[in-house]
Fold:
Amino acid sequence: MKKNRLGKTGIEVSQLALGTLTMSPMQRGLSVDDGSAVILHALTKGINFIDTAQMYGSYPQVGAALQKWLGPEPVIASKSAIKTYDGMMQAIEDCCKALHRKTIDIFLLHAVRDAADLQSREGALNALLEARQRGLIKATGASSHSAKTIALLAEDERIDVLHPMINRDGIGILDASLDEMISFLGKARENGKGIYAMKPLGGGHLRQEAAAALKWLFDSNLADCAAVGMTSFDEVDMNVAITAGLEIDAAFAGKVAGQDRRLFINEMICRNCGACIEACQQGALKPGEKSPKIDHSLCVLCGYCAPKCPAFAIRII
Ligand code: SF4
Ligand code: SF4
Structure:
């Protein structure tokens, strides 16, 4: 698989990264054995970049795969939404421990909402800078659904790598148009940021057109790499083939795309507390009589709502 350098970091990543949110307990909930098998399959197929996060709960799957893998060490990115210095240092330490590593390649501020949120995470960012200096991580980063936040981060010299929401149809991009996001990413690239795209398939909305959506991203040259959540050998095989520019058999593509997913709120156990509505940056949840109503056309399956639920009522099925 083609590899690209991630901005100025010197880190080489495959054009396709494996995202582990979809296999995590927040979504499909693959067992450690099944999840690590998918990761090992992806590594065998030439993917060398695995994306995880403190919030996902996918460290056990990633850690198990890394213990079994005998090839070159893959690149690992993780993230934490913690705001404090101590909390971020602990998050890095916990990640190293769980993944049996002394160094995590890239550690990001997770899901920065806006300028005020970035400001409130000064402590966490200082921890990332300190960790980079001490060799605990190789690069700092930040992920965001917000185009205006990406514009800010593009100019921030403390940040090495960006993980922005970007896809062909602009699904899930907050507070600006797709064209504006494209221009902010162009600026970020000029400034030497490494960029790996989040939700190039629109959180599942573009699954039926996966080949065209990934081709759009690769042709656009907006990112060094696209992170796609994969939970089966078939998904890995299809996305690897698309990335290699191969023709995909229509029946096979249909079978993979047919594994559709949706957010589900269990009305029977929902306490209608509204915490998930507050957590959703996409405006996909609205107050309802017994439980929040889901607007599936706005939901990008980012999973931010589920960990906020005190009743474990939210699932992606
Ligand atoms: S409803 Fe939940 S999964 Fe869907 S966009 Fe909102 S936070 Fe993300
Ligand atoms: S956070 Fe959970 S309990 Fe609260 S409204 Fe949302 S689904 Fe219901």
User: Anything to note?
Assistant: The first helix runs from residue 32 to 44.
